[in-house]
Amino acid sequence: MLHLGHDLCAISRFEPLLQREAFLRRIFGKHELLQAEARGVHASRYLAGRWAAKESLSKALGLGLFSWNLYEAELLSPLTARQKKPIWHFSGTMGEQVRLYQVESALSYEGDLASAVTLVYVKQQI
């Protein structure tokens, strides 16, 4: 079975949030925050894309956005030139919940918008 989620987010919403460290730690994992920091002035663009990805993941799984620890799902940028797409890393309770699923996401940016599409499908039958 295949599940689909999509979300669209205004990048400008994240510029003021960069100063709210406690909020950022509730939403984003430590690796996402490190990758955002490395982007300097483009950190809000990076975080808006990750927010959209978490929203689209919630929709694909049929979960309420705040019914799980958002920081337990990190969508990380490719670490090598061979990797072409971002990779999900799950930990904690979320890692246990999605272990039977394959999760793929694509991000797209246009102007002030970040868009994410997430596909979730069963890896093995229960």
UniProtKB/TrEMBL annotation:
Biological processes annotated in GO: fatty acid biosynthetic process
Keyword annotations from UniProtKB, A to Z: Magnesium, Metal-binding, Transferase
Superkingdom, taxonomy of origin: Bacteria
Pfam families reported for this sequence: ACPS (PF01648)
GO MF terms held by the record = holo-[acyl-carrier-protein] synthase activity; magnesium ion binding
Where the record annotates domain 4'-phosphopantetheinyl transferase, the positions are 4-70
Q: Which residues form a coiled coil?
A: none
Classification via InterPro entries: 4-PPantetheinyl_Trfase_dom, 4-PPantetheinyl_Trfase_dom_sf, Ppantetheine-prot_Trfase_dom
Query: What is the protein name given in its UniProt record?
Result: 4'-phosphopantetheinyl transferase superfamily protein
